[in-house]
Design a protein that fits this description.
Blueprint: H1 3-30, H2 34-60, H3 72-88, H4 100-108, H5 112-130, H6 134-150, H7 161-183, H8 193-218, H9 222-228, H10 234-242, H11 244-264, H12 268-277, H13 280-288, H14 294-304, H15 311-319, H16 326-347, H17 355-369, H18 379-391, H19 393-399
Length: 400
Amino acid sequence: MNRNTWKENLLHILMVIETGVCTLASTYLYSGDVYEMVRNTIVMLTAVICISFGWNYGKTIHVLLYNNENHFKRFWFFYATGILLSCFLPLFPYSVWPILAFALAFAFFSNPFMGVFSYTTILMLPILIADAPVSIFLFYFISGMVTIMLFQYVDESFRVAIPMMVSLLFFFLSETCVIVLFINEQLSWLLFVLPCLNLFLNVLMLMCVLKYFSFTIIHQYKSRFLEINDPEFVLMSDLKERSRDDYFLAIHTAYFSERIANAIGADVDLTKACAYYHRFGKIERMLSSSNDKETDILTRICKENDFPPGVLEVLLDCVGRRYESKESTIVMYSDAVVTSILYLLRKDPNTKPDYMQVIDLIFKKKEESGSLRNSKITIHDLIEMKQVFIREKLYYDFLS
């Protein structure tokens, strides 16, 4: 058992201990009833053991999202914080329980099923201690489910405005119906003060969770991509000294690849990185007379320079001429267009090539050669890609 496994097991044990201690202590302080102490502790310990089992089982069958199986500490942090918060919630009115954000946090840092179960667990503790009505449990439970459902498809574009607005609107309307109208049964504008305060607190906590999620998962490799996609990065600087032609070919290929990726919704950072480095295996073999395979050279470069996950896969896609991903297909076309135009300009510097004819010919040959038979690129993407090349007439003059 390695060190990381020991650490994770220790966190699981701490999670169970914290749940038991917090449940016993809070029940004793709020009621002091022995029966309730035993009941609440058994219920909560059973739940947390199920959570621990669910995490390990999910890790084994690889159903945890966003590579979470390697980051149990994130999940543990939110669970530990949630349990502590749950101990204090009975001190406040039902209408001021800022707990909604934990549903989202659990789902983000495990998976939706684990999110539902874990959120229900930390919600049960204040419900049991405060002996709250069933309607309160249902209100917070269903609001959490709606939030998890709305945010289950967050990708690199990070479009969260609409899910945020819908989940909070549902939360506020549900709270108004349950607490203001159903429980209090008397309508008064003062009854809306606490729900509004609760909405404000939940907005703040949701924004904190989304910010943390963006930083740790969605954009966790953003800074590294900025480094390796810099023309002055150590690998690019070394290439510039060794082969200026290959250096500028990479720069021009990256220019078009970036614009096309933006136009058709591909991963811009990944596409640009592959545009820069897809020829590095071939260049290294030529310049150093190496007998290593291009794939081995690229694998070593990615490992030694700590390239983000996914870069090597697309690079190997390019080298193997499979072009399965959108990113590798974009690089293939960009490389072909730039290489062809540079060749024509150097062949006859006094003659300006017919750029449109070159682009049409390249697209026709690629389609006829079967290069796209395994690609995820669509016909609409190809049309948009071609339009990007056509719109860049001034840039071709710059190449000359």
